[in-house]
Write a structure and sequence with these properties.
Blueprint: H1 7-35, E1 41-46, E2 49-50, E3 54-55, E4 57-58, E5 63-64, E6 66-71, E7 74-79, E8 87-93, H2 101-110, E9 114-125, H3 131-138, E10 150-161, E11 170-175, E12 178-183
Antiparallel strand pairs: 1-2, 1-3, 1-12, 4-5, 6-7, 7-8, 8-9, 9-10, 10-11, 11-12
Length: about 190
């Protein structure tokens, strides 16, 4: 006599297995985008004061307002679902070479930012004729080349990268009596 499981027990067992598989897949589909989501935060400096950090994340659309394209020595920030050439802000350090591990450790231990010279590009418009006007409104350089009556500006900049252990994360870009702080969070570049 063979010991076989009753048909009903097999169906329940198969149903439980399918339900577990479904729940695992559903969890992964929901959890992975949030776990791997790289949050971008920005902060504005004008009139001698830093403002609050603002996460550039939309609870309604389920994602970051902006994307980043570039590398650790400079990148452009552009609106989500737009082309990188339609950036709001772009900067480049003019003579960047990655620091050695000893220099990184020294700066981190002594809380000394890395300081570089570079160039920043941004847009203004007829309604927001200066970068300060745009920063006062949104806390970020949000005008793009697709904004009505927008004009590109280029300025020399001092870029300070705050001390780090593994990779640069927080950039303070000073230009034209203002500054923009950018924290790239868990975002990383392959270079």
């Amino acid at each position: 006599m063979r010991h076989e499981r009753p048909i009903k027990e097999l169906l329940i067992s198969k149903h439980n297995y399918d339900m577990k598989k479904f729940l695992i897949v559903a969890f992964l589909l929901v959890a992975i985008p949030y776990c791997t989501f790289a949050q971008l935060s920005t902060c504005a400096y004008y009139d001698g004061y830093w403002g609050e950090w603002k996460a550039q994340y939309s609870k309604f659309s389920g994602g970051c307002y902006y994307n980043i394209f570039g590398n650790y020595s400079g990148f452009s920030i552009y609106l989500r679902n737009h082309h990188p050439s339609e950036y709001c802000l772009k900067f480049q350090i003019t003579s960047y070479s990655p620091p050695s591990k000893d220099i990184i450790k020294y700066h981190y231990k002594n809380k000394i930012p890395f300081e570089y010279e570079g160039v920043v590009e941004y847009y203004v418009s007829d309604y927001y004729p200066t970068i300060k006007d745009a920063l006062k409104l949104q806390g970020f350089a949000w005008v793009t080349n697709s904004t009505n009556n927008s004009y590109k500006r280029t300025a020399k900049a001092t870029i300070k990268i705050l001390p780090y252990k593994k990779r640069p994360q927080c950039y303070n870009i000073f230009f034209e009596d203002v500054a923009i702080g950018i924290d790239i969070g868990t975002w990383y570049f392959n270079q």
